[in-house]
Amino acid sequence: MSKISVSKISVRGLRKSFGSNEVLKGLDVEIIEGEVVCVIGPSGSGKSTFLRCLNKLDELSAGTVIVDGFNLSDKTVDLNEVRQHIGMVFQHFNLFPHMTVLQNIMLAPVELKKESTADARASALKLLDRVGLADKATARPAQLSGGQKQRVAIARSLAVNPDIMLFDEATSALDPEMVGEVLQVIRDLAAEGMTMVVVTHEMGFAREVADRVIFMADGVIVEEGTPAELFGNPQQPRTQDFLSKVL
Amino acid sequence: MRKITKFRAAKLTVAVTALLALAGGFVGISAAAASQPQAKPNTEVTGETYVIGTDTTFAPFEYRKDGELTGIDMDLIRDIAKNQGFTVEIKSLGFDAALQALQSNQVDGVIAGMSITDERGLIFDFSDPYFDSGVQMAVAEDNTKISGYADLAGENVVAKRGSEGETFANSIKDEYGFTVKALADSATMYDDVKAGNSVAVFDDYPVLAYGINQNNGLKSVTEKEQGSSYGFAVNKGQNPELLAAFNTGLAELKTSGEYQDILDTYLEQPAPAASSGFFGLLSDSLPALMKGLGLTLLATALSIVIALVLGVLFGFFKVSESRVLRGIASVYVSIFRGTPLLVQAFFFYFGLPQLTGQSIDVLTAGVLTLSLNAGAYMTEIVRGGIQSVDPGQTEAGRSLGLGYVTTMRRVVLPQAVKIMTPSFINQFVMTLKDTSLLAVIGFAELTYQGQQIYAANFRTGETLLIVAALYFIVINLLTMLSNKLDKRFNK
Ligand SMILES: Nc1ncnc2c1ncn2[C@@H]1O[C@H](COP(=O)(O)OP(=O)(O)OP(=O)(O)O)[C@@H](O)[C@H]1O
Ligand SMILES: [Mg+2]
């Protein structure tokens, strides 16, 4: 388990197939500490699959993914350990419905013995305060609005102190008036220097917070660059075509 | 509102507990008829205990009176045992089951009003005949049309499966042009005639005579045919000393006149039929039925606990990543869901001992059957419950760095259990009802006790009503209690 790369995330030749359907066709990506990378592209292009390969929720078919120096293909690497470095936020929140908001956040730190119950409670309350939901500690997920649920989900992934955050269309399931409150939390995290990979359909947001934008189509990276380059002066016809439809 | 619910739940708990206690109190399984050696003991059998199988329902040879097995066969075997200095433990299994039990050495001998035939002589060794029987025909009391075999043309008649009566009826059915249907016990046959499904019954004359004396609603219309003789049987080549002791004892009872006394008790002076009304029947039969209910609940409780363990184990196998574990669970489930419970019960009680040479008691066999069977259904309930939890829940748990086991325990299972609980309660009720099938292997649960009672008093309808009511009350009390607990703990 030696440190192999200076990159925070290093992806080389990543391929992923579901049966005979090849969804990722050889991706190479380097992401450095503190960088915010937004991934955009049409539906079915493999954005979610790419993200899920970064914490191995999906098995890799070929290639290597190295996160924080841990090679995910290495059988001796403790995945549960690596995953504590990587927070993940899902489109549909996936909060635990049988627990209160506080219990949702405290579960991992307590189960993983990172904190005593009392400490975990204090940290959880702090996190809730940070996402603006200090008054919802004892509520059940079912009693929250979509935007509130997603902010709790973000607080939950932050509870194990990750140094990387992955967002998979975190605002797509939200009513428009709630998108802003969630984006604000992500924006704050970016400002604090969190390394982040953000799959999003919010082009305005990508342009604003991203250090780099990756455009994916059909399982390959078609084009990447700074927001100014990619949105202002796209080089590839597929990128131009996609942007003309969404902007 | 909450208080009321709590109070109700408490009352329910008390009611159920009381019922269980009541039933439990009656579970005192009647055992061996102990006896002291008397005149001329046969030294080879002295002090031995023999397990004797018999029919459940063959009055006046064997039937239950006030919960105790009685009848010509019972008096005879007990008196012979006393005379020869051995002890008998009677198992009331049913005719077919007793013969199967003898073949698989579950019992040492069978006395069940069994005719000595050449066919049976091939697999059993018979004693000297102890009773000369003969077949007689009876019809419903109010039937004026049928007075002889000649009136049977085009009609249905009924006889006991595998009995002399069936053989005789079949031997003359072509000559007189009627059809023969076979049923398992006398009480059912008489009901069939009274219900008009069959016009006449062919049965052994002492049985018929006893039933008619009990006001079973029939009358005999022919003379007794010259019939075969009844004998006591042991498995071929097994227990020769028991057979010898039976013959010696029988001869001595005949000499002393005790033999004739026994016959007179049951045939010459039949018990006057005292019809006691529904509540009389209820109070007479309740002790035996409660004893049966106790065994029903015992078998259910044991089976459901084992089934739960099996269900959780194989349920996890079913959702595991291992192809082998999934395969094992699938084979288990398909075997026990793909064969009838009745066949499984016969297999575990009669088949398994023949294969292994190890005899098995009826409660063990019954619980084995029910728990393996219910376990298969539980497996599917557990699998379904786990799989119905959104996969996103597992992903959220795993992405936080929680392991498979922790994610299952803290995230998936609490949600799955909530989904599964109604199905669990359902399975619990099914298993309770399935215990009634164990009557066929002679497990003395509620249905069996009911059969015993109407076999002796011929009041089938009323007895079954009481039995059904007991099931209904217990099942509904338990269901209500389970639902209350479900609401309390699975909010
Ligand atoms: N578990 C799976 N089994 C089989 N095929 C899958 C699975 N997950 C994804 N796919 C397929 O992989 C392809 C890429 O899916 P993915 O979810 O990565 O796309 P996406 O870019 O995130 O799309 P969207 O914008 O709609 O979320 C799709 O064709 C999808 O059908
Ligand atoms: Mg997606």
TrEMBL record, chain A:
Pfam families: ABC_tran. Signal peptide: none annotated. Its EC number is 7.4.2.1. Residues 9-243 form the ABC transporter domain. SUPFAM superfamilies: P-loop containing nucleoside triphosphate hydrolases. One of its GO terms (molecular function) is ATP binding. Gene3D superfamilies: P-loop containing nucleotide triphosphate hydrolases. InterPro entries: AAA+_ATPase, ABC_ATPase_HisP-typ, ABC_transporter-like_ATP-bd, ABC_transporter-like_CS, MetN_ABC_transporter-like, P-loop_NTPase. It catalyses: a polar amino acid(out) + ATP + H2O = a polar amino acid(in) + ADP + phosphate + H(+). SMART domains: AAA. Keywords: ATP-binding, Nucleotide-binding, Transport. This is ABC-type polar-amino-acid transporter.
TrEMBL record, chain B:
It comes from the Bacteria. Keywords: Amino-acid transport, Cell membrane, Membrane, Signal, Transmembrane, Transmembrane helix, Transport. It holds the Pfam family BPD_transp_1. InterPro entries: AA_ABC_transptr_permease_3TM (IPR010065), ArtM/GltK/GlnP/TcyL/YhdX-like (IPR043429), Iontro_rcpt_C (IPR001320), MetI-like (IPR000515), MetI-like_sf (IPR035906), Solute-binding_3/MltF_N (IPR001638). It is found in: Cell membrane. It is a multi-pass membrane protein. GO terms for biological process: amino acid transport. GO terms for cellular component: ATP-binding cassette (ABC) transporter complex. Residues 1-23 form the signal peptide. Residues 293-482 form the ABC transmembrane type-1 domain. The chain crosses the membrane at residues 293-317, 329-350, 463-481. Its main location: membrane. GO terms for molecular function: ligand-gated monoatomic ion channel activity. PANTHER family: ABC TRANSPORTER MEMBRANE SPANNING PERMEASE-GLUTAMINE TRANSPORT (PTHR30614:SF46), MEMBRANE COMPONENT OF AMINO ACID ABC TRANSPORTER (PTHR30614). Belongs to the binding-protein-dependent transport system permease family. This is Polar amino acid transport system substrate-binding protein. It comes from Cryobacterium flavum. The lineage of its organism: Bacteria, Bacillati, Actinomycetota, Actinomycetes, Micrococcales.
